[in-house]
């Protein structure tokens, strides 16, 4: 079979299985990404190892799928940037900001400690901590909607803290990768940081000045899907420039492009088009490819305790970090605990960080497999813990907003 036909067949299997598994996951009350990750593990070397079946003879097949998955990552980060509501983050106030910041620091420290105690050097230990830092609150938000508590001050702080979390993790990843790419002397590190700051300032300033005007111009031209083509081109340009010029991770550039377009009158049109392109095929390919690259068998019997400890550290670090931040922000102990538990689930950004680390040699197969298991475990555990903290029926005497708590 010709290599192109093999690629078509492999993509056919991935897309059908991803969407089917995603649908079944939603029927079970889980996010579709849970099903896509799980089916990736089944299709990958952990169970079926489909890409090494006898009729898949092209040695470059896995690489082609991996490249498509990386484009999916960029689009996913662009969409994440578009969905960041900085105004809502400011309205959420001090509890959300403190919970988001300390909720990133605690996993980095505790995850790094686990790595160090496990025999990793400092750089690899810190990166392992970074893989635990990113939160995905979609499943928590859905659970709180079902319990009718999302619009309480805990729910609003949860959404605000998630924004802070995402932005901070992306920036920390870029700083870490930039420092790792340079030498270890102080001047080189300072130059790396200065280069990043200069790039961020120019990218945001120029983008804010040029992209909205360019978008308005393109919208008036008789070009088929011109606005979407501009958004994709800007995403790829910013991703390339972030890594090639700014010394940052490419995903940071895509995230910044999303931030800029999310504040233009074209937001709704671009968001709809980007969702269609991304979630129709490229994003499912990314999530399934995580499983295709993960060999849970590599854990072995000896690796199971490491994975279980990683799950425990992932949950406890968010509960402690976010809970402490919320407590310092004025929340009661019970509210702080609920916020910390709500921030415990991991998802897309954490997987993206792990993928970057895997491709850079900062984590090995065992740690990567453990991170995937951690994401699946926290996705399952978080709604269970939240429901335990909000016994049915969840009666709120009065919906209280963040604004009221800051008075």
Describe the 3D structure:
This protein is mainly alpha-helical and 407 residues long. Helix content is 77%, strand content 0%. It has 17 helices and no strands. Helix 2 (32-43) packs parallel to helix 12 (267-292). The longest helix is centred in the middle third of the chain and has 35 residues, at 186-220. The chain is globular and about 60 Å long.
CATH topology, what is it called?
Na+/H+ antiporter like fold
Rg computed from alpha carbons, rounded to a whole number of angstroms:
21 Å
Overall spatial form: globular
| Mean pLDDT across every amino acid position | 87
Q: Count of DSSP E strands?
A: 0
- Strand coverage percent: under 5%
Structural class assignment: mainly alpha
Largest sheet: none
Total tally of structural domains: 1
Helix-strand sequence: HHHHHHHHHHHHHHHHH
- Calculate the terminal CA-CA distance, rounded to whole Å: 69 Å
- What is the level-2 CATH architecture name? Up-down Bundle
Level-1 CATH class name? Mainly Alpha
Number of helices: 17
- What's the helical proportion of residues? over 70%
Instruction: Flag low-confidence runs.
Output: 394-407
């Amino acid at each position: 079979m010709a290599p192109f036909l093999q690629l078509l067949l492999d993509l056919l299997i991935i897309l059908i299985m991803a969407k089917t598994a995603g649908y079944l996951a939603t029927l079970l009350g889980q996010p579709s990404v849970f099903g896509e990750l799980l089916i990736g593990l089944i299709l990958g070397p952990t169970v079926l190892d489909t890409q090494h079946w006898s009729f898949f003879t092209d040695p470059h097949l896995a690489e082609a799928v991996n490249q498509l998955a990386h484009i999916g990552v960029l689009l996913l980060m662009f969409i994440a940037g578009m969905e960041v509501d900085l105004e809502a983050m400011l309205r959420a106030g001090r509890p959300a900001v403190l919970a988001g910041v300390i909720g990133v620091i605690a996993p980095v420290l505790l995850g790094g400690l686990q790595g160090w105690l496990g025999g990793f050097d400092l750089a690899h230990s810190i990166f392992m901590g970074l893989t635990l830092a990113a939160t995905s609150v979609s499943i928590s938000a859905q659970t709180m909607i079902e319990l009718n508590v999302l619009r309480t001050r805990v729910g609003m702080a949860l959404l605000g803290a998630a924004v802070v979390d995402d932005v901070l993790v992306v920036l920390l990843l870029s700083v870490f990768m930039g420092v790792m790419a340079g030498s270890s002397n102080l001047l080189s590190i300072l130059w790396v940081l200065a280069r990043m700051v200069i790039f961020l300032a120019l990218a945001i300033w120029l983008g804010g000045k040029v992209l909205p005007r360019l978008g308005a111009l393109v919208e008036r031209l008789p070009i088929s899907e011109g606005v979407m083509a501009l958004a994709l081109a800007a995403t790829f340009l910013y991703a390339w420039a972030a890594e090639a010029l700014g010394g940052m991770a490419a995903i940071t550039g895509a995230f910044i492009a999303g931030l800029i377009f999310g504040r233009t009158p074209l937001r709704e049109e671009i968001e709809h088009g980007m969702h269609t392109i991304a979630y129709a095929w490229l994003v499912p390919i990314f999530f399934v490819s995580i499983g295709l690259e993960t060999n849970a068998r590599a854990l072995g019997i000896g690796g199971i305790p490491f994975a279980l400890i990683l799950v425990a550290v992932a949950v406890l670090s968010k509960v402690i970090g976010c809970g402490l931040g919320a407590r310092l922000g004025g929340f009661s102990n019970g509210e702080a605990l609920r916020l910390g538990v709500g921030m415990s689930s991991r998802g897309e950004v954490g997987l993206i960080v792990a993928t970057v680390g895997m491709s850079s040699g900062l984590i090995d197969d065992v740690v990567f497999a453990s991170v995937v298991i951690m994401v699946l475990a926290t996705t399952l555990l978080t709604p269970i813990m939240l429901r335990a903290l909000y016994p049915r029926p969840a009666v709120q005497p009065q919906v209280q907003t963040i604004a009221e708590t800051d008075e």
